[in-house]
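Attaching the record inline, Q. Sequence:
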Amino acid sequence: MRFNKETFVAGFALFSMFFGAGNLMLPPFLGLNAGDVWFQVMLGFIISAVIIPLLGIIAHARIQGTMLDFAKKVSPTFSLIYCLLVYLISIVLPSPRTASVTHEIAIQPFFDISSWHTSGVYFALVLLFVLNRSKILGLLGKFLSPIIFIVVLSIICIGIFSIDAPIQPSMIQTPIINGLLEGYQTFDAIGAVVVGGVVIISLQIKGKNDFDQNRKLIIKSGIVAGVGLLIIYAGMIYNGAVFSTLFDKEVTRTELLSGMSLKTLGHIGKLFLSILVGLACFTTAVGIVTGTADFMKGIFGDSQKAYVTTAIIGCVLGVLMGQFDVHYIITVAVPALMFIYPITIILILLNVLPDRFTNPLVFRAVVIATILFSVPDFLSSVGMKEHLQSILDFLPLGNYSLAWLLPALITLLVMNLITATNKNAEAA
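Structure, as predicted:
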């Protein structure tokens, strides 16, 4: 499998669109709490924040359509509702979160200005990039992403080789599950179905319409992005564990990230961290707003006016929601993620499987089972866990916020057995 310059440019562009606010803050904080079970926690985190997103990019490479094609086998109406929910969640939660993190870590320590000013300038620049649609892949892949990767890698390597402190014992009872659920907060699985479409449209704008060549390029670029995320996540989680004795357990995510940069890079670390945070968050916001604008443009018959209007609305929402602090946005995001993430994961898996295992009937049955069995997890996340405890105790993995997983997999197996039996009966 050959990786040329174009592959790396597209791969780094994908990496930069994935790597945003949550990707910076969550791994070290997870490692801090994981302590000596950091490796098991990392495995769970990698499943939901690297492997599933990579499968999402592979699914895009197989489909090479819009996000509507991800759920079209269920029904066109369901597909439209699902897409609208994903894009709404994306521009209301992870996109504004990038502005909040940028203000708290990159701007506030140096300048005495309000978050309104930060968000206003930030999303004005995002809008400028989004409106220059044809240049996005090159700008992100050639310039911004390599800088992000090098700075993060520097913090990781210095932390690994310069800090000699014992790793604290962990209080986490289910490290892999904890890591898996924390990976939800990166939004990377949702990001895969959003930014994968950005790459496809970018290739089409460049006049690359050969299906097989595009499929190979997208898969290779997904592997490049996935390897980059794997290296960064593993390093940041381990660093969090190494620093576990040097920080109070009450430290916030942003305080931990700032403290780690200070201890690894010294006082200049604040400047490097500011550059890193600003770039990482900015590239993610560009990817989200571009993906949303691309989608609405397609819905309205390839209308450029719809593209521009959506981009402006997305940036205005980013400014408004960006006034909330990072912790609040993460808290608000949990119920939305508990509802939409299981559906997204299952749609990704179904679209990666060969067509012979995923006819429309199988699609519908598996997605319906996923929705039904994710309802207890969703209701628990909005404060109703006490009323549902008996149900959660009964459902396999119900107490780990994964009540939907086994029913979805069993439904997939049963529906395929039924389909195979019917085909054999008809052949006989």
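The two ends are 43 Å apart (CA to CA). The chain has 16 helices and no strands.

More tomorrow.
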